[in-house]
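Case study: NAD-dependent protein deacetylase.
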Amino acid sequence: MEPYAMLKKIVEAGNVVFFGGAGVSTESGIPDFRGGDGIYQQRQYGMSAEELVSSDTFWKNPGLFYRFYFDKMVYPEAKPNAAHRALAKMEQLDLCKAVITQNIDGLHQLAGSRRVLELHGSIHQNTCTQCHHQFTLSDVLKQQPNQPVCPLCGGLIKPDVVLYGEALDQSVMEAAVQAIISANTLIIGGTSLVVYPAAGLIRYFRGKNLVLINKAVTDYDDQADLVIHEPIGEVLGSIMQ
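Here is what the predicted structure looks like once written out:
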């Protein structure tokens, strides 16, 4: 059976969980992280990207952190692509039970998905480090290129994203594990599966169909029931038409 037809049949059986990475959003104009031209291949201000978006840099030099963050990590004009829209449609049809994402851009929710587990947090949620008041992305963007400060107490505002040196939210990880354990089909898309602990989630899958959709080969291709090396928006968009 042709791969797209096989994937369509698998999706129609329901009880799908989707686990995605940066490649899901590249078709929305957001660069990936670890590709040849990815964000993490760059050096600015004499530091690597990992150093610039680390907890250590945020606390020691928030101005430097925010210069890189606003320039390379935040894309407020980005819109959901065919992959985001297809997953939202799958949820509406009660075929997809959860979307687990490593992305921080919020495009799944913008497309209409509601059962979204954000492993690395979201740029759309921001918290004052002193009074803990919550702010939207629009609130902090108004203060760029300067580091955003709380208008209520003057405290530094921190994006609710997981920085290097910080642990993932345990409750989100546990929810992701439970979703994968309960799934009949796990579709993994737009991720090279090299970033842990998130990449380790695959070991919890006990269902029938493991599907990998990624333009590049991954170390898990030989374990999958179906592998498609095509852009994920093209793949999911086509089967949901």
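For the exam, be able to explain this: The first helix runs from residue 3 to 12.
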